Amino acid sequence: MNDTIGVIGLGTMGIGIAGHLLDEGCTVKGYDINPERLRILAEKGGIPASSPSQTAKDCSALVLMVFNGEQVMNVLFGENGAAESLKPGSCVIICASVGAPACEQAAEKLEHMGIHLVDSPVRGTALSCETGTLYLMVGASDEAFTAAKGVLDTIGSCVVRAGHKAGMGQKAKTCMQAFFSLTFQSTYEVLALGTAMGLDPATVYSILDDTGASSNIFRATARNVASRQFTGTGNPLSILDKDMKIACQTANTCGLPVPSIAATSANFSKAMEEHGTDDVWSAILPLEKAAGIEVKFDIP
């Protein structure tokens, strides 16, 4: 590719995407409210911008890796918003988990300006961003999908069409995040329950790992809990807390009772009160505190 692409939101994932696009021959402009992230972009060969509007100027595509739906609307339509600089026929690609409503609202406004919106939340790690091996869940019209396909194929190794309109990708990501989070929460609860009953948590782990219900996610969760690895794993509690709130709100809109998702969301929110800067594995800590235990053990 030799297009000019904008990236707004240069955190761990956004800077990885920007770096990979640069490696693939794109001109990359970027914006973040943190000046340090702009410095890192410049070191990689990108062009730091002073606002979303300046970032979007002359770009054929604009990738958003921001935190939530409010930020999507602000960077696109707020003061010095990107939408005012985008040309008709260009596309906005939302790669963050922000919920379907924001994507639907943004798509409607951009459509009147002749700009495509592609709803494409991702699954992957910082390394996936840097190597172009993200898993993309895409909601977009055929025209928007075609306009963005070059960028999607560059940053992702697997592009799954979740639906043919904006918002469908977010809905698929919500299901995925809920599935992951329920696995995390069930692992916390059974390990804490076994420990509270006086069992060796290593024994509980071994028994569970020898069942058909075991999985790589179960093992990774147990490993981080057992070693008390609550930071530095690239799985922020704040992201899962936000995404589980989105799952609860979406289920409520559908009139669907989701007691397990609601309970998991409540526990994540409780963990956020004291461990908001930690990774998601710290969500076991409210359970430990309630029972006066510590689930610490060596993985057999």
Automatic annotation (TrEMBL):
<comment type="similarity">
    <text>Belongs to the HIBADH-related family.</text>
</comment>
<feature type="domain" description="6-phosphogluconate dehydrogenase NADP-binding">
    <location>
        <begin position="4"/>
        <end position="161"/>
    </location>
</feature>
<keyword id="KW-0520">NAD</keyword>
<dbReference type="InterPro" id="IPR036291">
    <property type="entry name" value="NAD(P)-bd_dom_sf"/>
</dbReference>
<dbReference type="GO" id="GO:0016491">
    <property type="term" value="F:oxidoreductase activity"/>
</dbReference>
<dbReference type="InterPro" id="IPR029154">
    <property type="entry name" value="HIBADH-like_NADP-bd"/>
</dbReference>
<feature type="domain" description="3-hydroxyisobutyrate dehydrogenase-like NAD-binding">
    <location>
        <begin position="167"/>
        <end position="284"/>
    </location>
</feature>
<protein>
    <recommendedName>
        <fullName>2-hydroxy-3-oxopropionate reductase</fullName>
    </recommendedName>
</protein>
<dbReference type="Pfam" id="PF03446">
    <property type="entry name" value="NAD_binding_2"/>
</dbReference>
<keyword id="KW-0560">Oxidoreductase</keyword>
<dbReference type="InterPro" id="IPR006115">
    <property type="entry name" value="6PGDH_NADP-bd"/>
</dbReference>
<dbReference type="InterPro" id="IPR015815">
    <property type="entry name" value="HIBADH-related"/>
</dbReference>
<dbReference type="InterPro" id="IPR008927">
    <property type="entry name" value="6-PGluconate_DH-like_C_sf"/>
</dbReference>
<dbReference type="GO" id="GO:0050661">
    <property type="term" value="F:NADP binding"/>
</dbReference>
<dbReference type="InterPro" id="IPR013328">
    <property type="entry name" value="6PGD_dom2"/>
</dbReference>
<dbReference type="Pfam" id="PF14833">
    <property type="entry name" value="NAD_binding_11"/>
</dbReference>
<dbReference type="GO" id="GO:0051287">
    <property type="term" value="F:NAD binding"/>
</dbReference>
<feature type="active site">
    <location>
        <position position="173"/>
    </location>
</feature>
